[in-house]
Here is the input.
Amino acid sequence: MTIAACLLLYSLALLVGGPPILRRLTSLGHTPLLGVAAWLTAMASVLVSWVVATTSAIVDVAHHRVHPGAAIAACLTTLRGLAAGNAGTALQIGLFAVISVGAAAIAASAWRLLRTLVRMRSRTYRHARAVHVVGRRVDGLDAVVIDSAEPAAYCVPGRPHAVVVTSAALAALSERELAAILAHERAHIRGRHPQIVAVVRGLAATFPKLSLMAQGAQHISRLLEMHADDAAAEQHGRASLLGGLLALTGSMPVTSGALGATGVAVLARAERLAAVTDVRPGRTALTAAAIAFAAGGPLATIVLAVAGVLSCGF
Amino acid sequence: MRSRGFGELEAVIMDRIWNREGSTTTVRDVFDELVAEREIAYTTVMSTMDNLYNKGWLAREKDGKAYRYWPTLTREEHSARLMRDALSGGGSPDLVLSHFVEQIGPEESARLRAALRKIAARGRRTAK
Here is the structure.
């Protein structure tokens, strides 16, 4: 039971301490993919500790009552003990109930996540199929053109994937800017970014109360944009990409309220593209350390818990 | 012509039907057009058009032994619908798209454009 308790404590510490630390480490996007890895590892580490904690608790309980007959007998004894006002066994029953609820919650969450992902996939693939049917092909352009007065460019995963450019965007962009934007979108597809975004968004929707998941989803999307920017800038130059960013910003109608965070995110990308690259080895090393910490966390916790148990002779 | 499987044929057939504008079409009409350019079986065209009907792209009406088909929506209507889905920010969280630039309100985008222009000018100076 010590292992389970320690793992839960560890996950709690990560849930509280993780977001501010990771935010600080990855805010500028010096090495975007490393930042993505850091957020992903932290999110996965929490989930893994929950699963392992519950499993270890179940194993603990089962270990004491291996034989099914013995388990029932023990259960009856416990119930009799409870009736007789035996507090120790009442605690046992309470513990058992907590474990059952924990296991049920994990199963329910997994089911909810799976359903969300399936829904996203079918909705997104349907969009991609429709894009291929409705869109026009233009010679020499590796993208699907949709006639629309709103300048926009995006990619959508599907079978096959689609990079979409509206006719208004084609009119607004120079040849080099267009090439840079298409390279950006292809980097998303190649790096399976939409799939990563779908999973973390699904996690955020499954655990709406956990800020690590919500912030993780948000920051991972932002970092993936920066990574795609880097890939495109490498091929077509920063100026082309920056020009494209400028050409496609604005003159779009608003459908929802002010999107403050979005504007800030676009500015951050532009700042980054315009700035002279300054590699910060210190921050990179810290991010790598954070990844190592979150990846090794559950195992280290188990080792510490076992060592603690042994030394206390418990 | 490069083929991208069944989905590509659906796109080609819808393209033909939209370009006809107004009149209804039979499988035979579409087949006659396509067979001039590619190797294709009549039954393939028939089953593809049947699929397009089942997916809601085409409507049809029995005419003697065959069906007469017509598009349920124009290409423009479909484009508008797709863009509405794609651009309406948080409209559907289930649609996973990667926009080059997310949608931004007009006031904010004016401020943003000003800031971007400044950054772009600075970027040009540092780039060269």
Notes: Residues 62 and 68 of chain A are 9 Å apart (CA to CA). Chain A touches chain B through 71 residues (CB under 8 Å). Strands of chain A lie at 136-137, 144-146, 153-156, 162-166.
